[in-house]
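Lecture notes, structural biology module. Today: joint structure prediction for complexes of two components.
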Amino acid sequence: MNQQPHHLMLKNVCLAYGTRQVLKDITFFVENGKSLAIVGPNGAGKSTLFKAIVGLEPIDSGQILIHDQPIHAHKDCVAYVPQKEEVDWKFPVTVRDVIMMGRYNSRGWFMPPGKADNMIVERSMDELNISKIANVSINELSGGQQQRVFLARAIAQEPHILLMDEPFTGIDSPTQEATFDLIARLQARQVTVVISTHDLNLASTRFDQALLLNRSVVSHGDPATVFTPANLASAFGNSFLVMENGTVLVDECCPADEEHTHILPK
Amino acid sequence: MPFFQFVIEPFSYAFMQRGLAAGIFVGILCAIMGSYVVLRGMAFLGDALAHAIMPGVAISYLLGANLFVGAIIAAIVVALGIGAISRNGTIKEDTAIGILFASALSLGIALISTVNSYAVDLSHIMFGNILGVNIFDLQITILFSVLILAIVALLYRPLLVVSFDPILAQTMKLPVNLLNNLLLVLLAVSVVISLQTVGVGLAAAMLVTPAGTAYLLTRRLKSMMLVSAAIGAFSAFIGLLLSYYLNVVSGSAIVLTATAIFFVVYLIKKGKR
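The predicted structure, tokenised, for the full assembly:
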């Protein structure tokens, strides 16, 4: 899968729901093997951007290119881990069944999984430390385990680009660390990793690049150059505050039901 | 009378043999299609489909054409109509189904009531006439059951992903709408097949009850389908025996057997918790 660079390129992408412009003239480029954190306030268009990249939301204009080819030319090079509420957790499938779904595209939809597929599924479960619960029904899982299952499925897809929508929201810290370990291993395999988060601390310390989004790209590049008070003010408007010691506080960047602030290290 | 003879004797009649064969095929077919109905929350839609084929049946009855053909056409039209309305989203799906289903039933009954002997015919359409299954009916039942089950087996993985995780299905570039419509059409045809056996009024029960029971007992889709099929076939067999000895309508006997199995399983499961 590493025969060519898997860079992701967006050129002037625009998307509107009716008259409401959600994404405006989005242009950015991520090299293969890099990690990118997308940060922005509520309604900045983070989830919509991800859905556009995987082809769930049609874009109105512009181009999304993965190794210089439009997205519909690709079948399985992008894996997408949505926020976890979006499947029926009472469905009668086991952990292994869910992860095997990640192999269906490469195996062919009418063929039973082969030896290689089974090996990839086992390896994916090992990587996320969930081999022990392989035969457990998904309705018996904890929140952290649920996330690991979907991450395992995403890597079983052997993607060139992995997109994760809010992977650090509402999970325990071992799962958070497991997610970072995984990101590091994927980067070593030249996989491009793009995530969205409202955690400025994680975004600024643990990713190669950051992108501040508020309908359009406010700033993109090295986290240190992106998270400046001026850029944050531009992205978050009034809901942000610079303390006397230089610490930046941002409010209103999380789901409305969670009340807290984020502290950005200097 | 020894038990063996008690079980075997009713099936010495040819009409009972045909009825049993049809019942078992329909039981298995509905049970497997019903797994999707239960998991995707389409129980109301299954009921609606069954009633919505009435006008098709009535028109072919009035024209003296084959009931089966009319039913199939009506069922497919209604299935795709419901699919289109629910995607469009201007009205809630269950409201759309409710309107469509009651009006189709009314239209069907109105048409049939123009014929003098309608009471008997109507009761056959509503509750089935499994003992009146002739060789041609049985051939049709077996042919379509095998065909539908073969399609479901071939498309097992795509249908699993579309039902469990539509977002993954879309990101994997599966033809999601096509698969959903196909499932509706297969469901519609299954309902038509079960018309002769359990009738319009009870087809929905054969879709939901065995699959609902199997859902309580299993934790993988494949095993749910197999257990559901076993319950469907077993209910057909026991139901026919009961109808023979107790002299009750066979469609009702089959459905009540399936329901009894459901409650036994439900209570055992509940007791364990």
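Point to remember: Residues 173-188 of chain A form the longest helix (16 residues).
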